[in-house]
Amino acid sequence: MAAILMGNPLAGQGALPKDAAAAQAAIDAGRQVPPKTQRECDYIEAAAAYYRDFATRCERAR
Hints:
Elements: H1 17-32, H2 38-51
């Protein structure tokens, strides 16, 4: 699975719009493979929440 690109929001630089499509593809791919642990599932869903409504909501709101 491809790495999901997220900046460090505490450093003031979050994900870039050019990375959102690649991240969404990785999230979709991760959802297709059954996670082996609850932690894996939670990580995928946390990344999905971070990128949800990327184009219309600011990073802090996401």
